[in-house]
Amino acid sequence: MNTLLKVEDLKIYYGSIEALKGISLTVAEGEIVTVLGANGAGKSTLLRAISGLLPIRSGKIKLDDQELNNVKAFKIVMGGISHVPEGRKVFATLTVDENLNLGAYTRRKDKKKIKESMERVYDLFPILKARRNQLSGTLSGGEQQMLAMGRGLMSTPRILLLDEPSLGLAPLLVKQIFQIIREINDQGISILLVEQNARKALSIADRGYVLETGNITISGQASDLKSNQKVQEAYLGGAALKKRK
Residue ranges per domain, the chain? Predict the structure, then answer.
């Protein structure tokens, strides 16, 4: 598989605090890659840096060998990277339709293709079609997460960055969201998934990285990470299971 996204020795600072300490990772075409880690590990920082929302102190981010350092965020979207942020961040006073249209802002002149994209989103999320004229602020948490993902798809990305898509959702909705992530990937879109629900993330991912206080400490195939003792103890409830015994 061809490497689509490459992060090389990336360092990000917040003032004098080093948030990412020279991390490297790749996402190949058609892959789901997950990044696991506790709160404050630097997972959201990584996605924001890839999206052009944070300045890079050093290192490189490349899409198809094209360097993205110092490229404006909207041009990164136009290049094929779409970011679905943590906390959904839908525009509460706008309708579902209006939120989706904003997701297609970089292609706003092509009305026909925008309409086609919207219909694809509504095929993927039928509940949103039923709510298309409803204000987004009145949607349930799960519906807002679907809308945020749908909005991200409106720019026709090659790679979708998903930041904690299951956060705050009931177990049944979590299962549904992960099924949809797999469907999106089946449509040929690569996914970089930041997720605290390690068990669910590793169940759909091809590969994974563990991020701890700005460093990648473990990486490998998802199946290997699931059987890794450190990953089990830290993220899969392994320590809790031992205590029960």
Answer: 3-80+160-244, 91-156
Sign of CA dihedral 206, 192, 236, 89: negative
> Is residue 205 a contact partner of residue 34, using CB atoms and an 8 Å limit?
yes
pLDDT digit string (tens) for 24-71? 999 999 999 999 999 899 999 999 999 999 999 999 999 998 999 999
Q: How many CA atoms lie within 13 A of 121 on its CB side?
A: 32
Q: How confident is the model at residue 238 (pLDDT cuts 50, 70, 90)?
A: low
Q: Closest Cα to residue 197, out of 213, 186, 184, 208?
A: 208
Domain spanning 3-80+160-244 has what CATH number? Answer: 3.40.50.300
